[in-house]
Each structure stands twice: as structure tokens, then as C-alpha cells.
Specification:
Strand content: 15-25%
Mean pLDDT: 81
Shape: elongated
Largest sheet: 5 strands, antiparallel
Number of helices: 27
Radius of gyration: 51 Å
Distance between the termini: 122 Å
Number of strands: 25
Structural class: alpha/beta
Low-confidence stretches: none
């Protein structure tokens, strides 16, 4: 674009333009510069804008290729009126666009445009020539001002055309002011971004130069480090591992990223830690399983007494592994009361298989990231507990004990039990993906063992993935065997009496178990034995250290008639001699060391109408649950107390409805519940109780209160009842039977469908407890009342 009052060079190459230029240079050197609308090579009158610039040719330079370089000076704008050809030269007739005097109203606008241009010149990265800025400042007419500014602006030619065509000075100046302000905004933003980028680049260059200088310093000191980021060493270690293609590809990409980073950058530390975790995992490392079934059985029996079902399952697995090397590891769930040996059995399984053992406690875990890990982009991110435990184990096939799996809980951070669904599924865990690693890891060779006190707290999808093995409570005989084989030798060793022969008599052990440890497991028994042995140790030391010395006759003093005729000889030692010492622990010593027996409260089952001893089972084992019922004058309400759950409340409603529906068969008066309030209470109200298995006890207690006839003494009962006289099966038969036996009951009434469970009880329980099985509630009630007192048919 050529504006008036500006000197512009350009090239001329088209034949018609060359002829017009030659004609102009041979005359008055004036030429009309018209600007095309389109990019055609042979423009016509319709292809050019009507307003152009009349210029004077200052200089013409012919080039070797036939073109010309022309330097022209724009003089004024003109409006093209007519075009004609004469002797192959294009001539034009025009009307001059006059540069009128500046009115007062435009002076302010002219100054504003000049200010905008000065701001533009300062914002430009490439500074304008001083002459260009000076011409703009000195311009005294709109024509000169617009011409100088448009020539200096670094914008497309299409955006300059409107300023050439516009003839209204005010509109030209306003549009130019808007254009300058837009350019200033754009340049300001670009300069701001460029400044920030430059700062970052300067910081990176500074770090680079400093690192290079540090390298030179190390080189001069003779401690040059060829691999500052450690990427080469990490790559060498990764190539030595047995990685899958997907894992190897992922890690190689991260190694290349690490090699391009500065050693002191934060991302370099994150990548290095990530790759070190990959390297530390046991890719392809396995331990050899034990194949000797007899030796495995010996180890299991040496570590634990009883527990036949889990032992049989482990021996089955060892047998199958001998015939088929690739076997999916079982996922076992040991369920039982506290103190029954679930956790120690998991450790024994690892010793039996000759595998590494890892224990993970899940009690109180409520964050899914504890299982799956955090994304490595987070500060301080780590893999989950599963991957961390594999790193500690150092092998692909350890025994994993997931302890207290029923104690997990979920919140807004996720549900860890849902994250375990993939871990404990043999069909999925061969491609377990931790959020931190972001690559699959094979867990199919890991033997997972979970422990729980109660199955009810475990979600059904997770419970369905595990092979449940119940570990019930121990009988008194089993506890006695465990004490003699395991606990007593262990406590003797731990309390410093290993040289002595410490023996618990049968009577003292029976007293300790029955009088101080009414529990399903053996933890309290171990504490009581430990207390007895500790106090025995203390007594031996006290007796030895307070043993009096001896007085001997001083014969030399007697010969000289001196008064000191005897000498005191202190004891030769103050530590007891344990070797060959035999110590018998008697019942009196147990009472002396442990205090009075801590027996449970009397249930009050003798000769009281409205009282029935039920049985319950929970995560802590079994127990006896007394149910009390009372009927008195009132408004016909049913009152339930004792912190009962919803299911137990419904069982009480069923018991009352059964009595009303069968009052004739039970020998009850027609109006036995009219204007009467019935109150059912379960003592020990601080402990919540729930479940349907107290149905028989609730019905019997209610019937006993109505008839005012006490139940047979020594009979405990359990079973769910229905409105149609049926007795449905219940769970926890062994735990309930052991609890009834501990409390002195000689007879248990239970559902007919539980006969098979009772047949699997230990012989000593079946010998001491009589079981009465019923599938009808009416027949069960007949056995609960003394003969001749039950009025039912």
C-alpha cells in the first residue's frame, strides 16, 4: 500500500505495468497507483479500487530478469474516472481528493490518534524508525497523519484499504484510533506472555548452566557423574527383570522422560521413585512350595491343636500342586470368635507351604486408596497395601493374611471392600492394576487368607469370592490340650522358668478354665496362665532373696575368752536354683494368684415362672440369653425392653400371636390377654441383641408367665418359630452348645434341621449334653414343662 507523503519501494514485472512505468519516466514521472480487488494477473476496470494514489517515480532500477525495482513518492489521493489505451499504454483520467484545512473539532481527535500511535511504537518488539515516528508527530493534516501511520503499521494490506478509500476525515481518524487501540491491546498481551515465557526460559537456562558448571567442577575433582538423573542405571536394572511387554514399554517411556529432565526438577524425583518401585517388585521371583504331605501335616499339628477343616484344606492344596503345577491359589476366609487361632493359623500355613508370609491389618481401613494406592501425580503418593506387601515379601507367591476383613468401613473416599473384589477374584487378579503403578500385576499365585469374627459384616459380593471355613470355639478338653501342649511351655519359657519342671495339675487347670476363662477362644486362658507363672517366679525370687543366713561358733574367740563367740554367715546366693526344681500348681495356688473365681451371674432359672434360658451366637462366641416375661392387669399392650433388634421384636410378636391362635390347644383361657399388659424383657440391656433364634425362648417364657408354671430346670433352647407351628434351623450350633455346657445345662432343645450340625460336635459335648430335636413348636413346648403340668394337647 502506498499512501501520500510516503516513499515506498516495490517491484514491477507485468508487461502492461512495465510499459506504463517506461512511459511515465520518459515524461513528467507521474504514475497512478491503483490497488486490485482480486489477485488476477490481468486486471480490468472492475478489478481495481476506484481511489488510488498519484505518485512520482523517484528511482528505477532494471534487474537482470527483466523486472524493475521502483522507488516512488506518494503525492495525493485521486479518484479514477476513466481508463483508456493509447499505443499499448494504459492511461487514466482522475479527480484529485483534496486535503482540506483541519477544523477545530478534529484537533482533539488528531492528538488522540497521535497518542495511540506513540503507545503502539513503544509496544512493538521491533522498534520503528525515528523518522517514521517524527513524521507522525509533525503531521498537521488528517491526510498526512493517516498516510504516515498506515505506512508504519505492521498489518495486512486488506486492513489498510478502507483508510485509502474513506474520504471523510473524521471517520478515517475514528477508525484509525480504534485500530490502534486494538493493536495496542494485542501487543500488550503478547508482550506479557512473551515476558513470562522468557523468565521461564531464563530460569531453565540458568539451571542448565549451573548444572554444566557443576559437572565441570565434579570433573576437575575427579568425581564426574556420567548419569546425573540415574536413568541409565534404572534402565539397566529394568532390562534385567522379567517384565511383560506392556510393562516394559511403559517403563522405557518413563526412563526416556527421566533422562531428558534436570536432576533437581520435582518431576525427576517423582519418576525416579516410580521406577524404583517397579524395580523393587518381585517380577518373576517365586519360592518353591513344600510337597511332602506328611511333613506339612506334622508342622500344622505342631503349631495348632484341632482345627481339622482348615488343615485338611491346606493338605488338599499341597496334594493337587504335586500333580498339577499351575493351580489357582485358594482364597480362604477363617471365621470364628476372637482368640481361636485364626491369625496364627495363617502364619502356620505359610510355614507349611514354605512360603513367605505377609500380614495386612484391614481393621478400620476406610479409604479405597489403602488397597489400590494413589495416582503418582499426588505429592507423597505410594502404592496400596497389596503392592507394598508384595515388595516386602520379595516373591510372587507369598501367603497373604488379610486380617479383620469384617472391620472395614466406607465413606466419601470410597469403599475398600469394593476394591478387594478384584484382589480376591481368581478370574481377575492376574491383571490387578494399582493406581500408582498404572501397569497390571499378577496376583494369581498369591494365597489369600482372610479372617473375620462375623460374616454378616462382609458384603455379599466379597463373601461370595471366598471359601468360608468356620473356626468355632474350643471345648474344655480342647482348651486343656492347648494349654498343656502350647501355652504352658510358652509361658514357662517367657517367664524365666525353663530350667524348672512346672506342672499344672488336672484340678488346677480345670479350675482355671471354668472359673476364670468363660470364653470361646484361649486368649484369657493364656493371660491367666501367664499371671500364675509370673507370680510363681516372683515368689521363688522372694523366698530365695529373703532366706535367712546362718550363725556359726567362733572357736578362736572362745579360746581367748572374747565376747563375740559366734559369726553370721549370709546366704551364698540370691537367685533360685531352677535346674531339677519341680513345681506343682495346685487349685489353692490358682485361687491365691488369680483371686476369686469370676463366674457369670446366676441366670435364676430355678422355679420362676416366665423365665426361659435362650442361646445366642455372635462374633465373640456363644452365650446364654435369659428371657423374662410378665403379665399383669393393663390395657392390652405388649412391652419389649432390653435393647432388642427389629428381628427379635418381631419374634416376640410372633410368640404372642401363636399363643392367641392356639389358646385352645395350649389350654389357655379365652380372655387370657384381655385387659392385660404383657412385658418381655431380656436382661443385660446394655448389650444389643437381635436375631430370630430366640423364638422358642420367647414363646416358652410367655407361656410360662401366662400359666404361672416354671420351665424344667437345666434345659436351654434355641430355634426360630413361625405362626404355623414350625421350628426353623439356626446357626452357631457348636458355639451355643459349648456355652450351654459351660453354664451347666444338660439338655438343649433345638430344630430338627440342626441334627446334622449336632452330630459333628466333639464327643465330650455329646456325652454331657442331651439334644431334643423338634420341627413343631407345640411338641417342643411339651418338653420344656415338667411332666403333668403342661395343659396342652
Amino acid at each position: 500500500m502506498v499512501f501520500p507523503h510516503n516513499v515506498i519501494p516495490f517491484f514491477v514485472g507485468r508487461p502492461a505495468s512495465l510499459k506504463a512505468l517506461n512511459e511515465a519516466t520518459s515524461g513528467n514521472r507521474e504514475i497512478f497507483l491503483a490497488f486490485q480487488k482480486t489477485a488476477t494477473e490481468d486486471p480490468g476496470p472492475d478489478d481495481i479500487h476506484p481511489i488510488g494514489t498519484v505518485a512520482r517515480v523517484v528511482q528505477v532500477l532494471k534487474l537482470p530478469d527483466g523486472n524493475m525495482r521502483v522507488l516512488v513518492e506518494g503525492r495525493y489521493r485521486a479518484c479514477l474516472k476513466k481508463i483508456r489505451q493509447k499505443k499499448d499504454v494504459t492511461w487514466g483520467q482522475y479527480r484529485m481528493v483534496r486535503d482540506e484545512a483541519v477544523p477545530e473539532s478534529l484537533k482533539t481527535l488528531i492528538q488522540a490518534v497521535k497518542d495511540d500511535f506513540q503507545a503502539y511504537s513503544k509496544l512493538r518488539t521491533k522498534k520503528l524508525a525515528k523518522e517514521a515516528v517524527s513524521h507522525v508527530i509533525k503531521a498537521d493534516t488528517p491526510e498526512k497523519l493517516v498516510g504516515h501511520i498506515c505506512s508504519a503499521l505492521d498489518i495486512e494490506a486488506e486492513r489498510k484499504i478502507p483508510f485509502l478509500l474513506e474520504t471523510d476525515p473524521k471517520r478515517r481518524l475514528e477508525e484509525l484510533s480504534v485500530l490502534l487501540q486494538m493493536e495496542n491491546e494485542f501487543l500488550g498481551l503478547r508482550n506479557d506472555i512473551s515476558g513470562r515465557v522468557k523468565k521461564r526460559m531464563e530460569r531453565s537456562q540458568k539451571e542448565y548452566f549451573l548444572n554444566e558448571q557443576l559437572k565441570e567442577i565434579h570433573k576437575e575433582l575427579g568425581s564426574e557423574e556420567a548419569d546425573p538423573t540415574g536413568s541409565q542405571e534404572l534402565e539397566r536394572k529394568l532390562l534385567e527383570l522379567e517384565l511383560d511387554d506392556e510393562v516394559r514399554q511403559k517403563t522405557m517411556v518413563e526412563v526416556k522422560r527421566l533422562s531428558r529432565l534436570q536432576p533437581m526438577s520435582p518431576e525427576s524425583g517423582v519418576l525416579r521413585t516410580y521406577l524404583e518401585w517397579i524395580i523393587d517388585l518381585p517380577w518373576g521371583k517365586r519360592t518353591t512350595d513344600r510337597h511332602d504331605i506328611a511333613e506339612a501335616a506334622r508342622i500344622l499339628n505342631a503349631d495348632h491343636f484341632g482345627l481339622d477343616m482348615p488343615k485338611e484344606r491346606i493338605l488338599d492344596f499341597i496334594a493337587v500342586r504335586q500333580l498339577k503345577s499351575k493351580v489357582k491359589s485358594p482364597i480362604l476366609c477363617f471365621v470364628g470368635p476372637p482368640g481361636t487361632g485364626k491369625t496364627s493359623l495363617g502364619r502356620s500355613v505359610a510355614r507349611t507351604l514354605d512360603r513367605k508370609f505377609v500380614r495386612i491389618s484391614l481393621g478400620g481401613v476406610r479409604d479405597e486408596a489403602e488397597i489400590r494406592g494413589h495416582r503418582k501425580t499426588y505429592v507423597g503418593a505410594l502404592p496400596g497395601k497389596i503392592i507394598q506387601a508384595l515388595k516386602r515379601a520379595g516373591s510372587l507367591n507369598p501367603v497373604f493374611l488379610l486380617d479383620e476383613v469384617d472391620k472395614m468401613s466406607g465413606d466419601y473416599r470410597g469403599d475398600p471392600s469394593s476394591a478387594l473384589l478384584e484382589v480376591l477374584d481368581p478370574e481377575q487378579n492376574n491383571t490387578f492394576t494399582d493406581h500408582y503403578l498404572e501397569v497390571p500385576f499378577d496376583l494369581s499365585e498369591v494365597m489369600f487368607i482372610t479372617t473375620a469374627n462375623s460374616l454378616e459384616a462382609i458384603p455379599h459380593p466379597l463373601r461370595d469370592r471366598m471359601e468360608v471355613i468356620r473356626i468355632p470355639g474350643y471345648t474344655a478338653m480342647e482348651k486343656k490340650s492347648i494349654a498343656r501342649q502350647f501355652i504352658i511351655p510358652k509361658q514357662i519359657e517367657e517367664n524365666g522358668l525353663s530350667g524348672a519342671d512346672v506342672v499344672f495339675t488336672e484340678e488346677s487347670l480345670d479350675l482355671l478354665i471354668r472359673g476364670y476363662t468363660l470364653e470361646a477362644g484361649v486368649r484369657n486362658m493364656e493371660r491367666a496362665i501367664s499371671q500364675v507363672v509370673r507370680k510363681l517366679t516372683r515368689k521363688l525370687l522372694h523366698d530365695e532373696q529373703t532366706r535367712p543366713g546362718r550363725w556359726i561358733v567362733n572357736s578362736a574367740a572362745l579360746h581367748k575368752d572374747q565376747s563375740h563367740s559366734a559369726l553370721f554367715v549370709p546366704p551364698e546366693r540370691d537367685m533360685p536354683e531352677l535346674q531339677g526344681l519341680k513345681l506343682n500348681i495346685t487349685p489353692s495356688m490358682v485361687r491365691e494368684y488369680l483371686g476369686k473365681e469370676r463366674l457369670e451371674d446366676d441366670l435364676g432359672t430355678q422355679g420362676r415362672p416366665g423365665l426361659a434360658p435362650g442361646l445366642y451366637y455372635d462374633g465373640g462366641g456363644g452365650g446364654v440369653l435369659p428371657v423374662e416375661a410378665s403379665i399383669y392387669d393393663g390395657e392390652g399392650k405388649l412391652i419389649l425392653t432390653g435393647q432388642l433388634g427389629d428381628v427379635m421384636k418381631e419374634s416376640a410378636q410372633i410368640a404372642l400371636s401363636y399363643l392367641k391362635a392356639n389358646k385352645d390347644a395350649l389350654g389357655l383361657k379365652a380372655d387370657f390377654d384381655k385387659k392385660k399388659d404383657i412385658h418381655i424383657h431380656v436382661p443385660q440391656g446394655a448389650i444389643p441383641v437381635d436375631g430370630p433364634s430366640a423364638g422358642i425362648a420367647l414363646t416358652a417364657a410367655l407361656l410360662s408367665a401366662v400359666l404361672e408354671i416354671p420351665l424344667n430346670s437345666g434345659i436351654a433352647m434355641t430355634g426360630e418359630v413361625t405362626l404355623t407351628d414350625r421350628v426353623l434351623p439356626i446357626g452357631g450350633v457348636k458355639e451355643k452348645s459349648l456355652a450351654a455346657r459351660r453354664r451347666g445345662f444338660h439338655t438343649i432343645v433345638m430344630p430338627e434341621d440342626n441334627r446334622r450340625d449336632a452330630e459333628e460336635l466333639p464327643p465330650e459335648v455329646k456325652d454331657e449334653v442331651k439334644f431334643l430335636f423338634h420341627d413343631s413348636l407345640g411338641k417342643a413346648l411339651c418338653d420344656l414343662f415338667p411332666k403333668g403340668t403342661f395343659p396342652g394337647k
